[in-house]
Structures are given as structure tokens and as C-alpha cells.
């Protein structure tokens, strides 16, 4: 396998905030922790966590996902008061969602033992399944490349009656689920490992599972060797432990709103964008009342849908039914930090951006801010695509840019732009030379002129035949080249996104088997966010 680093840039869709974060430039870095990971761990040593209760929750969840012994052993490390966590997370996408989900999980699993060795303390990799999210359209589909190289969307379309946390949404429509699996199988085609992939999907995804439990089982199976711990926040015991966090959100609304507003102004003053745009009256939490609904402030009261609560009533509801409460995007990292000794948080470009907004509230709740690192980005170029890129010296930036400009460059190289003019010049020159020769050589026998005319007619016919074949070949070459380039773009930059943000990992697992997951683990550098492209030579 050949690796090639790709320089992050605005051309590739990265924001200036993210680029400055990667480069360590101010003012971006001022919105994140200035402490080292070692310093963060020392601060966490002084913070109390409900470790026994968290370990019990993690065991219960991971055993239900049939997690491997390595993951269960990692959970027990949290009983050590010096242990800390490295977190990554993602939504519970259908059939595992995009490949970046698996990549992020493997990255934190690989980082944990390295950090543990450096810090001389246990470091546990925990993958946060975004089970409280209710955005059904974000998780109900996945993408594969079909056997013709086209992008195919696989979808489970039966939505819940009301917007609900995905931890509650069951895959209850058996026919719809079977249809999605059949579409998945059709897109993969028959390969050496297709049957294994489909067997695993059917073991994990059934009508008795929710999006979250099915996803958890699949992730546990794919990462069995690497000691990855899975966590779903959609858990009544976890929510009960988080009562102080939610109580703080309810009781400190004015201060919360003030510090978040000030941080937003600072980010915008620095010339950066706001990843999360909030209404002025947003309370930064959700409550499940006939569906997951955002909470809004109304003077000293709160509204949830069409219902109004006093602060006291909200606190009473929290005390009685904490499982109804969940954070929003800005307060979720703090929710995590209240439950777990989080030393390191891995995130993608969007997450890094909203961390910049939400980090400001950690001090308000007297919680230690984790060190943030960017997730790696990896794309895999299969043999035919790597060969095409080598043949025409194609850079990834060209694939991600103006594709027609790339096609024109290649066509110009393979077929000169003035070929048509040169061909007409050739015909004219042949005619001129033939006419000159005829005039100079046939004066002694004018009777040959008729034969000369017939001869040139044959020459002209041959030239026209050659012309037809030449331009037909050019047209076919152009069409073939255009099709190959568009397939290359679909494989590496599908629908205008990096490959790992769109394609399901099954595209490669069906072709290379579980060996591909091993390649992914070996290839990922959790502390070098990339992006990078890896050429696969194996067939």
C-alpha cells in the first residue's frame, strides 16, 4: 500500500477555523484548552466521578452489544482512580453509516495504549453513540458504490411517528429493513466476502433492534480486537447520574446564555464562522414530552412544545424522570465530562467548530476541559483508480476541484487540440501535391488524366475513411476518459465529500474481508489528522 499525504485547504472544503486549529494558530487555539494532556490528567485526578456506577452501566451496555473480552477488560480500568478516557463519537448510522465512523473508533482505540504508555496511567477509548439525537434523516441511510462505480443510496424509510431519540427508534418495519438489506447486497455484488458482510448485518440488524442497539452490535463486532468501549447516553441510569448537570443548565440559564453569547461574539470577531446557530431563547437542552423537543426560555419560565413550566416544575420533572432530559450540541461535551474523566476528545471539522463555542461553559460548571484533537481522514484508491491517477499524474485536489477542467487537461494531453486543423491541412497538401505531380508528369500522355482522377478519388475515399475512424476513436476516447474520471471522483470524493464521509466501509470489507479493518487500524495515525490517500494494490 502506498500512502500520500494531502494538504488541508479551503479548496477541499475546510473552514478557516479548522485550518487554524490544525496549524495551532491564534486566535483559533484560544478557544480550546491550553493545557497538555498530562496537565489535564492531573486536574482530572482532583475531580470525583461515579466510577463504580459508570462501570456498571458500561458493562451492561457492552454485554448487550456482545462486545469482546478486550472491551470488557477496558471498562474495568475505569475503576482505577487515575484512569482517564479518550472519546470519539458519531450518530448511529444505518449499517454503520459512513466509513469515518469506523475510522474514528479505530483511531481512539489505537491512541489509547499509546497515551497510556506516555502518561503511565490507564487510558480507556470510549465511543459515544449519539443515541439522544432525533435527526432521523441523518441516520436512516448509507451509501455504497455499485458494481458500475455509481453512488447508490441505501435507505430505511419508515420514520417514527414523532421526532424521537434514536435510542428509542426501533427498526420495526421488517419488510422495509429486508428491502434495505437487499439493496445493500445488490450494490455490493458477489464478492469473496459479500456473504460474510451480509451475515453480520443480519445478526446485528433485525426488527427487534433500535438504530442504536443494532449499530452497537455491528461496531462491537468490527472492533472486537481493539478494546473499544461503546456508550449510549440514552440510558436511564446514566441520566440519573447526570442530574447535577441538567440541574445546573436549568438553574444557571442567564449565566449560560451570557457566556455562550460572549464566546460567539469572540469567534465571529476573530473572523470565524459559528457552527451552531441558536435562537435567542434556546435553553440548550431537550426534554422528551411526546417526542424529543427543544426547551426554550420564556421569561423566568420554560416552554417545551406548547407546554410551559416554571423552573421549579422543570427541576421536579428532572428529579422524577431524568431520562427525559438530554443536552444539545453545545452542552453535550460537558454532559460527557460530568460522567467521565475525559482527557482527550477527538472530533471532525464540524465538531471542532462547535467545541470552540461550547468549551466556554466548562468553567461555569467547574469541569476540566479536555484536549481536543482532529480525527484522521483516509481515502482508499483501489488498483484501477490508483493506476488512472498515475497514468495522468492526477492530484487529489484536481479530483475534488473542477472535474471538467481535469478532463480537459487529460484529453488535451492525449489528443492535440489542433488535430482537426492539421488533418484538413494534410488533405489540402495531399491534393496540392497530387495535382502538381499530375500536371508535371502527365503532359506526355493526356489520356492518363482520367485514371489520375480516379486514383485521387480512391485516395480521398481512404483519407475520409481514416478521418472517420480517427474522430470516432477520439470521441470514444473522450467518452471513456470522461467516464473513468467521473468514476474516480465518485470513488474518492462522492457527492462532494471525502470518501470516508460518504461511503460505507462495507464497500471495502466485501472486497478484502476483515483484513481491511486491520489495514484501517494499521494505517490510521490518531495524532496526524491528514487527510491522506492510500493506494490498494491487492485485488
UniProtKB/TrEMBL annotation:
Query: A Gene Ontology molecular-function term?
Result: ligase activity
Q: EC number(s) on record?
A: 6.-.-.-
Q: List residues of the Bacillithiol biosynthesis BshC N-terminal Rossmann-like domain.
A: 10-375
Per UniProt, the keywords (alphabetical) are:
Ligase
Annotated Bacillithiol biosynthesis BshC C-terminal coiled-coil domain ranges read 379-530
Establish whether keyword Nucleotidyltransferase is in the entry.
no
Concerning InterPro entries, the annotation shows: Bacillithiol_biosynth_BshC, CC_BshC, Rossmann-like_BshC
Origin superkingdom: Bacteria
Q: Which family does it belong to?
A: Belongs to the BshC family.
- What HAMAP family does this protein map onto? BshC
What is the protein name given in its UniProt record? Putative cysteine ligase BshC
> Which source organism does the UniProt entry give?
candidate division GN15 bacterium
Amino acid at each position: 500500500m502506498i500512502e500520500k499525504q494531502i494538504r488541508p485547504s479551503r479548496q477541499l472544503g475546510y473552514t478557516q477555523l479548522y485550518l487554524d486549529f490544525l496549524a495551532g494558530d491564534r486566535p483559533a487555539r484560544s478557544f480550546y484548552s491550553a493545557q497538555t494532556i498530562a496537565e489535564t490528567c492531573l486536574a482530572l485526578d482532583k475531580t470525583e466521578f461515579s466510577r463504580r456506577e459508570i462501570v456498571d452501566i458500561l458493562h451492561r451496555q457492552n454485554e448487550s452489544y456482545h462486545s469482546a473480552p478486550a472491551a470488557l477488560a477496558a471498562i474495568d480500568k475505569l475503576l482505577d482512580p487515575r484512569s482517564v478516557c479518550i472519546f470519539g463519537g458519531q450518530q448511529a448510522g444505518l449499517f454503520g453509516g459512513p466509513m469515518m465512523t469506523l475510522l474514528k473508533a479505530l483511531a481512539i482505540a489505537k491512541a489509547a495504549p499509546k497515551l497510556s504508555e506516555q502518561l503511565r496511567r490507564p487510558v480507556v477509548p470510549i465511543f459515544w453513540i449519539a443515541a439522544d439525537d432525533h435527526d432521523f434523516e441523518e441516520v436512516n441511510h448509507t451509501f455504497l458504490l455499485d458494481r458500475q462505480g455509481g453512488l447508490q443510496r441505501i435507505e430505511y424509510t419508515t420514520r417514527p411517528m414523532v421526532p424521537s431519540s434514536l435510542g428509542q427508534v426501533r427498526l420495526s418495519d421488517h419488510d422495509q429493513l429486508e428491502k434495505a438489506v437487499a439493496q445493500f447486497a445488490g450494490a455490493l455484488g458477489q464478492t469473496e466476502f459479500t456473504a460474510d458482510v451480509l451475515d453480520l448485518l443480519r445478526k446485528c440488524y433485525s426488527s427487534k433492534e433500535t438504530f442504536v442497539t443494532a449499530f452497537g452490535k455491528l461496531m462491537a463486532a468490527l472492533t472486537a480486537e481493539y478494546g473499544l468501549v461503546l456508550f449510549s447516553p440514552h440510558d436511564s441510569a446514566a441520566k440519573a447520574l447526570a442530574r447535577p448537570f441538567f440541574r445546573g443548565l436549568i438553574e444557571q440559564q442567564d449565566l449560560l446564555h451570557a457566556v455562550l453569547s460572549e464566546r460567539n461574539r469572540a469567534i465571529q470577531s476573530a473572523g470565524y464562522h459559528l457552527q451552531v446557530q441558536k435562537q435567542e431563547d434556546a435553553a440548550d437542552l431537550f426534554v422528551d414530552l411526546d417526542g424529543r423537543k427543544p426547551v426554550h426560555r420564556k421569561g423566568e419560565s420554560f416552554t417545551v412544545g406548547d407546554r410551559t413550566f416554571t423552573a421549579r416544575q422543570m427541576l421536579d420533572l428532572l428529579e422524577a424522570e431524568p431520562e427525559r432530559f438530554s443536552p444539545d450540541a453545545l452542552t453535550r461535551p460537558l454532559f460527557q465530562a460530568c460522567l467521565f474523566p475525559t482527557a482527550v476528545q477527538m472530533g471532525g471539522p464540524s465538531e471542532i467548530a462547535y467545541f470552540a463555542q461550547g468549551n466556554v461553559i466548562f468553567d461555569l460548571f467547574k469541569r476540566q476541559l479536555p484536549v481536543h484533537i482532529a480525527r484522521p481522514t483516509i481515502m482508499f484508491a483501489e488498483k484501477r483508480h490508483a493506476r488512472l491517477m498515475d497514468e495522468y499524474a492526477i492530484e487529489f485536489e484536481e479530483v475534488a476541484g473542477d472535474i471538467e477542467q481535469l478532463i480537459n487537461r487529460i484529453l488535451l494531453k492525449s489528443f492535440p487540440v489542433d488535430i482537426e486543423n492539421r488533418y484538413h491541412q494534410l488533405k489540402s497538401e495531399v491534393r496540392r501535391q497530387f495535382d502538381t505531380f499530375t500536371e508535371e508528369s502527365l503532359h506526355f500522355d493526356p489520356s492518363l488524366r482520367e485514371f489520375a482522377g480516379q486514383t485521387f478519388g480512391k485516395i480521398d475515399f481512404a483519407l475520409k475513411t481514416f478521418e472517420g475512424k480517427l474522430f470516432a476513436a477520439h470521441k470514444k476516447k473522450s467518452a471513456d476518459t470522461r467516464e473513468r474520471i467521473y468514476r474516480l471522483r465518485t470513488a474518492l470524493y462522492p457527492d462532494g465529500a471525502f470518501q470516508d464521509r460518504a461511503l460505507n466501509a462495507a464497500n471495502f470489507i466485501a472486497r478484502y474481508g476483515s483484513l481491511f479493518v486491520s489495514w484501517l487500524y494499521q494505517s490510521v495515525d490518531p495524532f496526524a489528522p491528514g487527510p491522506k490517500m492510500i493506494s490498494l494494490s491487492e485485488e
